[in-house]
Amino acid sequence: MWGHLDAKKLPEGYPQFFARGEGGHVWDVDGRRYVDLMCSWGPIVLGHHDPAVDAAARKQAEMGDCLNGPGPVLVELAERLVDRIPAADWAMFQKNGTDATTACVTIARAATGRSTILMARGSYHGAAPWCTPVPAGTTEADRAHQLRFEYNDVASLEAAAAAVGDDLAAILVTGFRHDNIVDQELPTPEFAQAARAICDRKGAALIVDDVRAGFRLHAGGSWETVGVRPDLSAWSKAIANGHTLAAVTGRDSLRDAATRIFVTGSFWCSSVAMAAAIATLEELERRDVVGHIAALGQRLRDGLAERARGANVGLRQSGPVSMPLFLFDGDTDFAIGRAFCQATLEEGAFLHPRHNMFLCAAHTEADIDAVLAASEAGFAAIKGLR
Ligand code: PMP
């Protein structure tokens, strides 16, 4: 199994293969049912098998999916995104998050005629040679014209921008700091404003990679929470509730560059995923999903914190409550996190020991309470380990 979905990277007992999902639950191929706090690593934002999304996808599938060009759903979806996202004047579509981040970088370079991209150290933007975290098989040239800064550190961002001189094409930054294995951080307003100001001063593009956080923190994009609007945004994961779709949205100032680059894919215009995305956006609005998952996330965080205090364990929970990450103090080799998750899994809750998790609209207070009850086996399992 390639990439991060390799179950060998998880504790013993984690399934590699899944049979089905329904609402906030998944079943593995051995018939075991779990409360699903990974939500397919982000795409499931309404719930597995959401009836409204499934109906829209089925209806479109009956008419056609992959045709000689896009269907009218492409226009309808683009208009909805532009209505919903304040920083969007236009939209284009792809399949995976990496397609979208790669297109953003290409558009920024086409627009500015410059090369250098500033990126935060440790941030994940996808698995293409220019951004994969594992350099095997890539060349130095794949990563040329990139400079790093520290997320949320204005001085390091300013220093990196100064080092670039007049070759800055873009600052590329995730919706919040959700790097693997370290505590998560929401963007500070000062950091977001500094990124905006540098791009304005230098005539560069500000790109927010909202592939992971998009549609979970704020209806209009994660940086709406700090009042800063990017020039380009990359979307995927939650946009179509599990159907295969990614999008780039941008400001008018980048429209010309977006029309000049050549990007495409055999399946990029398939209509079923777009119909699913339209239904997903409708449901996100109708149900206040952002508020629902925040309330459930707070319930989970409070419940875990209380149990950690009771067990006298140092448990750090960080980032937005609807995308929880927890790490144990002093757990440098993740032995505690792994034992905790393994025991909790056995009680029917699918958690991750080092990656952020995801809540969805189909989760209920009863599901969160079931996770908390299961976590008691986790806290018991790590007793001797500290
Ligand atoms: N950017 C971010 C912030 C992501 O979290 C991811 C996926 N985890 C990607 C880009 C790449 O998306 P994909 O795996 O769909 O190519």
- Beta strand count: 13
Instruction: Summarize the amount of helix as a percent range.
Output: 25-40%
Which H/E pattern describes the elements?
Answer: EEEHHEHEEHEHEEEHHHEEHEH
| Major β-sheet strand ordering | 4-10-9-8-7-5-6
Bound molecules: 4'-deoxy-4'-aminopyridoxal-5'-phosphate
Query: Any guess at the CATH architecture of the largest domain?
Result: 3-Layer(aba) Sandwich
The CATH homologous superfamily name of the largest domain equals Type I PLP-dependent aspartate aminotransferase-like (Major domain)
User: Unreliable segments (pLDDT under 50, ≥5 consecutive)?
Assistant: none
CATH third-level topology of the largest domain: Aspartate Aminotransferase, domain 2
* Fraction in beta strands: 15-25%
Shape: globular
Pfam families: Aminotran_3
Protein name: Aminotransferase class III-fold pyridoxal phosphate-dependent enzyme
GO molecular function: transaminase activity
Family: Belongs to the class-III pyridoxal-phosphate-dependent aminotransferase family.
Summarize the structure.
With 386 residues, the protein is an alpha/beta fold.
Could you explain the architecture of this structure?
- It is a single chain.
- The chain has 386 residues and is of the alpha/beta class.
- The protein folds into two domains: 3-49 and 289-381, Alpha-Beta Complex (Aspartate Aminotransferase, domain 1); 57-286, Type I PLP-dependent aspartate aminotransferase-like (Major domain) (Aspartate Aminotransferase, domain 2, 3-Layer(aba) Sandwich).
- The chain has helices spanning 51-63, 72-84, 97-112, 154-164, 189-202, 255-260, 271-287, 289-311, 335-346, 365-381, and strands at 18-22, 25-28, 33-36, 90-94, 116-120, 146-149, 168-174, 205-209, 232-235, 246-250, 315-318, 325-328, 349-350.
- The strands form three sheets. The protein has a seven-stranded mixed sheet, sandwiched between helices.
- The two termini are 32 Å apart.
- The model has no long low-confidence stretch (mean pLDDT 97).
- The structure holds 4'-deoxy-4'-aminopyridoxal-5'-phosphate.
- 4'-deoxy-4'-aminopyridoxal-5'-phosphate (PMP) binds next to helix 3.
